[in-house]
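Page 47, continued from p. 46.
Same chain as before, 474 aa.
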Amino acid sequence: MALSVSAVYNDDYGRVQVSFTGANTDADYAKVEWSKDQITWTTIRGGDAVPVSAGAGKVDHYDGYIFGITNYYRVTAIDSAPVTNVGSGTFTTGNNATIAPPLPAGLSAGNMMVLKVSHRNTAATITTPTGWTRVASGSGHFEHFYRPYQAGDTAPSVAFSGGSAGDSCSGQVHAWVNAQAPVHVATSVNSSAQDVVYPGGTSPTKNTVWFMDAWKQSAGTSGAGAPPSFIDQQGAANTAGANGETHLSWRTDYTSNLNSFTTGVSLWSGGSAAISKARLLRVPPRDFTDQATTSYTPVFPNANSKPYWLMNPSRPGQNIRVEITGFPELSQGGRTGIFEIVGRSAPVIVSDIMESISFEFTLDAANKTEAKEIAARIALGDPMYLLVPDLNADIDTLYFTATNLKRAVDTPGGSWSVTVSARQVSQPAPAVYGSTYIWSDVPTNYATWTDVVAGVATWSNLVDKVSNSVIIVP
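Result:
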């Protein structure tokens, strides 16, 4: 089942509800992002680590989407586990003939398989097996390929060219969990000697897994020393043909935290001096398990007489539709210091950019009670978000904080107004995110289970509710 994303606008709190299903079972959480052009992506509020349950999850997008245009949502399912070893298939040898190294046991979808292959003849070349990808910077007769495992995969068929009868060849498949494509780091090409020089490397990330693969153009090796912190020697001396070779490899475990090491010499016993090569690969953790995108055009319900949304990013239950009557002016104060100098007519300045805009706007209220409710929501002191659906309105959508509030009666016994003095502020970080509906809200809103059943049709409807529990101390 592939990852699928959907989005729908819900006018109860002015939110676009983004949901997904079909995420890989390895995923621990998902990141949800928004874009208007599919070039620049922004993590939505609360979308940095959305819980995943049975491959599904959801998050509400309150601030940032745009009415009347195509909005794009991208869900990236992430497995936070380290790269761990699955195992290795049987080391397989041949006499200048096609070989089929078996896959390791216990593979699951998405496991990264790495196929190492060598041929005794340095003039030989290896044909990339069907469905596999060659790791760049190989040596022709000494190559590595990778493929994420899929159900139904079978042993790769590895063919050679340029060799001769009697030339030994070999291959083996290794696999890791939560790994992406292996990265070539370095290769040591060594003149004839008994021991094998291997390369060093440095990783840009912690808990790196390394794979060191070594080849020697002679057989008969009875033992070899692993590089420090490397384990799990695989491979063997190969005498499938009259002209032998030895092919050995080692790996590290992420717990070794070996992120940098220098070149060294692996001591090989038995056999004879010969030319050799050692190649170092880095096996990085995969960026994500699945990724999918959807597009959605939210439409503002114009039937409502209150065309603006006054939102609280940290307390979405306080979001409210409002009617605003005009924005008298927008002003910006200066932050430049002007200093008079004795004996000079012109002062000097210490300059800085100007302040963000300050402005006033007036909210209409049907009565005194509604005016008090609107004022109480703003008086919480949190950064607020003014969503302006009409792109041609007198003011743009922005974040602000209230610096002053005034309530006034417009008609005795009738309508009121709330005047807000405000200053534009920066957008709060995506991690500033109010709870949706939690268990403690249920007894607050419903006296009995009968009331719950009567109030919401399904469990999904209950989960989709937004908590409006907040204490305002007068």
